[in-house]
Design brief:
The protein is mainly alpha-helical. Helices cover 59% and strands 0% of the residues.
Length: 78
C-alpha cells in the first residue's frame, strides 16, 4: 500500500464527508467525544454496506488500511 501524497488531508476530508453522509442518511449521530478511529471505522463499514466502496479482505482491515481506502474515496469526491 503506497501512501498518497496528501493522505493526512484526505483522511480529514473523508471524515468530514463520511460524517455528513452518515448523518444525512439518518443512521448515526456522531458525538464530539467519538474518536477519529471510531468514525473512520464506522464510515468505512457504512460505505461498504451501501456498496459505495469495495471492501478490504477481512484479514487486511486495520486503521492504516481503512485510512488509506477512505483517503482514496475522498480524493474522488467533489
Amino acid at each position: 500500500m503506497k501512501k498518497l501524497k496528501n493522505e493526512k488531508e484526505l483522511v480529514k476530508k473523508a471524515i468530514t464527508l463520511g460524517v455528513d453522509y452518515a448523518e444525512k442518511r439518518g443512521v448515526v449521530e456522531f458525538e464530539p467525544t467519538d474518536s477519529a478511529s471510531e468514525k473512520l471505522e464506522y464510515i468505512y463499514r457504512l460505505l461498504v454496506h451501501d456498496k459505495v466502496i469495495q471492501p478490504l479482505p477481512e484479514d487486511q482491515v486495520s486503521q492504516p488500511s481503512i485510512q488509506h481506502k477512505l483517503a482514496i474515496w475522498a480524493s474522488k469526491q467533489k
